[in-house]
Specification:
It holds the Pfam family Pirin. The chain has about 425 residues and is an alpha+beta fold. It has one domain: Jelly Rolls (Sandwich). Helices cover about 15% and strands about 35% of the residues. About 10% of the residues have low confidence.
């Protein structure tokens, strides 16, 4: 082997050694870079995760709302938003013609419904057992009669709370008291369950006249919050009221039952409504019903479209802003002529919140009866067939009071009229 070959081989060895050393150090540096990038990515993810903890998603589920009965969460059983634009009433406070409702006529594209009424819309005599009805009015008049002889006329912002308990029959009729102008009607009917040990309690009802219902108003009338049941932040139903029937699930403040209604009138305003978290936080179920308006924003990032329901995390507060108001048939007509002030005609965004600790018991229901077992349900219908839950002391199944009669309640034969409004 020549000297030149030896020198060439040494050069190749040095080149190979240099290449190995270069690849070794290069790979170490690359590894360091990759580790550094991974650490930064982990740090970024950790920061994003921490940010998510600071501003978590309050909405657990979004769903389309029915035009008839809507989904509810325990402890609630049933919710309907009634909104009708009835014409002027005839001499009997009814609708002209001869029509009868089917009870399922929740068609959104017609101006009004008969429900089960005949000429006078409403719900003639029918039974209930095992729960409570909360009737929260906004516009219009409702005439109430029941099988224990109590009665009332209420509406225009009043709230009636009736415990059906062991069994009652009642009628809810919507007399068209205005003969020379339209009769808008708007209210929520809510069913609140009773726990098993209260289902056979004595029937009763309480009335909250509209001036006693707690309201939170923004100066400048950009929004109004109505506290029908429970506590909204520091605001709770008036303590001077017999606020809830004594056997109600809501009568125990530990159950944090709330029924809150919010109307917002300023489109794309900077103004937001802040909804506080439930007092018992995640122990409560909470659901929001977006019933009026085209679009609103939750926490500045979740866009909610009209007729949407939102299951919410009750452990979090949140903000709501109206981004697109509705314009109802009524408000369009109002722009052409002056009418009496009715909140049904205002452009608005509006939502209802139902919240409360779940009762957590099995439910067996059929129509107007809600019990815990099939046997109890069968017995409820047997008892009604046998006793009629006290019978019916009224002249007809769809009683309405004289047109000129003011709002009143009659309990145990004692008649009390609504106080003259201060507002």
């Amino acid at each position: 082997m020549s000297g030149g070959d030896i020198i060439f081989r040494d050069d190749r060895r040095r080149q190979l050694l240099f290449l190995v050393l270069f690849l070794f150090f290069f790979s170490r540096n690359v590894r360091k870079v990759l580790i550094s990038l991974e650490e930064k990515e982990d740090e970024s993810l950790s920061k994003s995760s921490n940010d998510a903890k600071v501003v978590p998603m309050v909405i657990k589920k979004l769903e389309r709302l029915n035009h008839g009965p809507m989904k509810t969460l325990d402890p609630f059983l049933f919710l309907v938003y009634h909104k009708d634009f009835y014409p002027p009433g005839d001499e009997e406070m009814g609708l002209k013609g001869d029509a009868r409702g089917s009870g399922s006529d929740f068609v959104p594209d017609i101006p009004y419904r008969f429900y089960h009424g005949h000429r006078i819309p409403g719900f003639p005599r029918h039974p209930h057992r095992g729960f409570e009805t909360i009737t929260a009015t906004l516009d219009g008049i409702i005439d109430h009669t029941d099988s224990i002889g109590d009665a009332g006329r209420y509406g225009k912002g009043d709230l009636q709370w009736m415990t059906a308990g062991s069994g009652i029959q009642h009628a809810e009729m919507f007399p068209l008291v205005n003969a020379d102008e339209e009769n808008p009607l708007r209210f929520f009917q809510i069913w609140l369950n009773l726990p098993s040990w209260k289902k056979m309690s004595e029937p009763e009802f309480v009335m909250h006249w509209k001036d006693d219902v707690k309201k939170i108003r923004k100066k400048g009338k950009e929004y109004e919050i109505v506290v029908w049941v429970g506590q909204f932040g520091d605001v709770k139903v008036n303590s001077n009221l017999s606020a809830t029937p004594k056997n109600s699930w809501a009568s125990d403040e530990a159950n944090d039952v709330g029924v809150f209604y919010v109307e917002m009138y300023a489109e794309k305003s900077r103004e937001e409504v802040r909804v506080p978290k439930a007092r018992i936080e995640s122990e409560a179920n909470r659901y929001l019903y977006f019933v009026e308006g085209e679009e609103m924003m939750i926490n500045g990032r979740e866009k909610i479209q009209k007729r949407t329901g939102c299951e919410l995390d009750a452990s979090q507060s949140f903000t709501v802003k109206c981004t697109k108001l509705s314009q109802s048939q009524e408000s369009i007509r109002d722009s052409d002529r002056s009418r009496s002030s009715s909140s049904s005609g205002k452009n608005k965004c509006a939502f209802l919140i139902l919240q409360g600790r779940p009762i957590g018991e099995p439910i067996r229901s059929s129509g107007p009866m809600v019990m815990n077992t099939n046997e109890e349900l069968r017995k409820a219908f047997q008892d009604f067939d046998r006793t009629q839950f006290g019978g019916w002391p009224w002249k007809s199944n769809d009683v309405v009071f004289p047109r000129a009669k003011e709002r009143f309640m009659s309990v145990g034969g004692k008649e009390i009229f609504a106080p003259k409004s201060k507002r």
